[in-house]
């Protein structure tokens, strides 16, 4: 999938598969080890617990999302073009990494500790959106809104819409979802 350390890529992919299929609570380290075709001790060598493995998986995924979007946000783009790019890239990411999207959005609202960790991880990505919103406000392209609220709202709107499609019976049509999200984001943000 999107592992940076190839040594653990089997464990990482197995964890994504198992968490996606069974959910965090029903998944076991035995399930993940069997899916990865490694000894359970190999997993425990890298991760102290299922929770630690789960949080690592989420952190890696969010980092890939953020890095992918950030690498395309060229300074010469207008704030409106940057925001459009963010909307498209997030939709494409969720389409490309469907199982990760399901895990991220379905499972991260578990215990209080997990919620706090998740918010820290996703904050770096939402900060990118906030910066673009702030640039748009300063350039006079966007209405004056609270950039933090707008950033989390845009992320959430896209994420929940993607999850709804991924968990439903409809095909994940990235272009149709992009057009709908773009229309909603720009009708409320762009002058």
From TrEMBL:
<dbReference type="InterPro" id="IPR050624">
    <property type="entry name" value="HTH-type_Tx_Regulator"/>
</dbReference>
<dbReference type="InterPro" id="IPR041490">
    <property type="entry name" value="KstR2_TetR_C"/>
</dbReference>
<dbReference type="GO" id="GO:0045892">
    <property type="term" value="P:negative regulation of DNA-templated transcription"/>
</dbReference>
<keyword id="KW-0238">DNA-binding</keyword>
<dbReference type="Pfam" id="PF00440">
    <property type="entry name" value="TetR_N"/>
</dbReference>
<feature type="domain" description="HTH tetR-type">
    <location>
        <begin position="5"/>
        <end position="65"/>
    </location>
</feature>
<dbReference type="InterPro" id="IPR036271">
    <property type="entry name" value="Tet_transcr_reg_TetR-rel_C_sf"/>
</dbReference>
<dbReference type="GO" id="GO:0003677">
    <property type="term" value="F:DNA binding"/>
</dbReference>
<dbReference type="Pfam" id="PF17932">
    <property type="entry name" value="TetR_C_24"/>
</dbReference>
<keyword id="KW-0804">Transcription</keyword>
<dbReference type="InterPro" id="IPR009057">
    <property type="entry name" value="Homeodomain-like_sf"/>
</dbReference>
<protein>
    <recommendedName>
        <fullName>HTH tetR-type domain-containing protein</fullName>
    </recommendedName>
</protein>
<dbReference type="InterPro" id="IPR001647">
    <property type="entry name" value="HTH_TetR"/>
</dbReference>
<dbReference type="InterPro" id="IPR023772">
    <property type="entry name" value="DNA-bd_HTH_TetR-type_CS"/>
</dbReference>
<feature type="DNA-binding region" description="H-T-H motif">
    <location>
        <begin position="28"/>
        <end position="47"/>
    </location>
</feature>
<keyword id="KW-0805">Transcription regulation</keyword>
């Amino acid at each position: 999938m999107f592992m940076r350390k190839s040594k653990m890529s089997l464990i990482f992919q197995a964890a994504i598969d198992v968490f996606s299929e069974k959910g965090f609570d029903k998944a076991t380290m035995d399930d993940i080890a069997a899916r990865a075709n490694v000894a359970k001790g190999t997993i425990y060598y890298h991760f102290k617990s299922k929770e630690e493995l789960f949080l690592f998986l989420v952190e890696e995924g969010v980092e890939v999302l953020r890095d992918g979007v950030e690498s395309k946000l060229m300074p010469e783009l207008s704030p409106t073009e940057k925001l459009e790019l963010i909307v498209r890239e997030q939709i494409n990411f969720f389409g490309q990494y469907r199982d990760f999207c399901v895990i991220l959005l379905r499972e991260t609202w578990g215990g209080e500790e997990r919620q706090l960790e998740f918010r820290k991880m996703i904050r770096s990505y939402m900060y990118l959106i906030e910066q673009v919103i702030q640039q748009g406000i300063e350039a006079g392209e966007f209405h004056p809104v609270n950039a933090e609220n707008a950033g989390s709202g845009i992320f959430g709107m896209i994420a929940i819409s993607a999850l709804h499609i991924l968990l439903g019976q409809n095909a994940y049509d990235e272009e149709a979802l992009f057009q709908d999200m773009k229309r909603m984001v720009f009708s409320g943000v762009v002058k």
